[in-house]
Write a structure and sequence with these properties.
9-stranded mixed beta sheet, alpha/beta, 7-stranded mixed beta sheet, elongated
Length: about 550
Amino acid sequence: MRTAHREPGGSSIAASPDSHEPPELRMPETVPDRIALAQEWFDWHPHPGQRKWFDLRDDQGNEPQTLIAACGRRWGKTEAISADVAVRLLIDSQLGQLLVAPTQDQATGLFDAVTEKLQSEKLQSDRRGNLPQILADLEVKRSPYPYIRRKSDGAILLSARSAGRNGRNLRGKGTTRRLPRFRVIVDEAAFVPDEAIERALRPMLATVPGGGQLVMISSPNGKRGAFYEAYCKGERQESGYRSIQSPSSENPLVDTAYLDEMRREMTDRAFRAEFLGQFTDAAGMVFPEDDIEAAGIDDDYGSAPLAGMRYVAGVDFGRRGDYTVCMVAEISPAGIRIVDFLRLQSVSWTIQIERVCDLLEKWRVCAVTADATGIGDAVVEALSAQCVWRRLRIAVEEFVFSSATKNALIDNLALSLAQHRLRFPRHPDLLSELRNFEVIGRTSTGRDRMEAVRGHDDAVISLALTHHAAIPFLARSRSGAIIGSVAGIRWSVNRSSSHSSGTGDDKELFSNASHQRLQKSTIQHSFTAKDYLLAYLYQFAPCRVVGSRIKA
């Protein structure tokens, strides 16, 4: 006998059975059958784009561990997700599912779409097998957050949470003994912080046999972030990843005349992202995606310096929650190549200096540029003292950041990337920071304000400092003269004499064509030609830089 049942603070999907064992609906889990059930129960008929999303499989014919869909607006993301989640909730009694969105309102809206389908008349009237018992065993609760609980054993089958700023509220979620399988569905994933995806959501799947499944679906938000990087892996069909790109026009309910009107009224970049589901460079993106991709290298350089090669480094010391990053680069006639990458967090200044010095000593670095802004001044002093104590032949330059020096530093880096004079390994943290580094406004003095729109920018700053340290060594021989460029001004020194001259007509080498302000500004802490020659000569004796002068 079944009796109507309702617990305080919750609502039942249907009447409750007397049994305390979780009922199970034994139905096949193939894609055609799931779609057929969704059509029968919810009167939901997927369009071709949604069917293509349901059909994505890896090379073995299994569902990929990470499934990504880049969709245009009004493509039908909510309907597709809610139908898929609702069917799985009914046919798999050992599956837990988590809905995640940028805000709680968005997550709750998706949750409501699922509960609406579970309360459909066609589903409630279906008496096959033990479906009535399954529905009666489900309870919807709204506090402290929306979730669906199985009353017979208390297992939470579905919950909806916001990602928050960093995903800390999601930690601790995942599999349980009652629910050994787990799926995470991230709606509008391009707008969810990378830290939440990488450090909260992905670790949830670590204890799932086969890795569980992470589903990310969103309209694009520029060529940056975890969503874009996962999409690219799916495009390359890397193991465990599959992705699709679907425009709004795949939805037959979208008015084509309205799309044509939006195409005329919106910028090309905005229309392609919002309605075509295409990834475009963000409006304020400092480093274009094509330049980042062209700079990436996959070959193994090795873990030791090569005979006859010169190496330089750049160090950005982290403060509080930031990272300390040190990069080492090889200088050659072909340009600059990053060969090693050190990233530290939450360690003492003493340990940071020792680890940085270990790296500099390992690669026999001859020059390093370090951030000396604020407390960094004392840290660079300690770094210099450590280099002298170890008798390392390194010239240490103190670089103090201001709006002017930072813009010039970043502009020089951007230009070298555009000219394909810089190469680096495809380190995920570096790639993510380059893509997230943007111009986000102007300072009170009218200069562009550049920083990371999400996450950290320590790797970008370290790369820029490394590039700055390499500039004086990017010299080539021409008619017996050493030629270099400093702050956009070329200089030459005759090998047979100490005469040096600046050639102001040739300023374009290190001036960013898209940021003409560099031609009008000066780098306050740059070396003169004489200083760079001294740095080259003094690499055979311990020395350091004081201000912009070198002293042995």
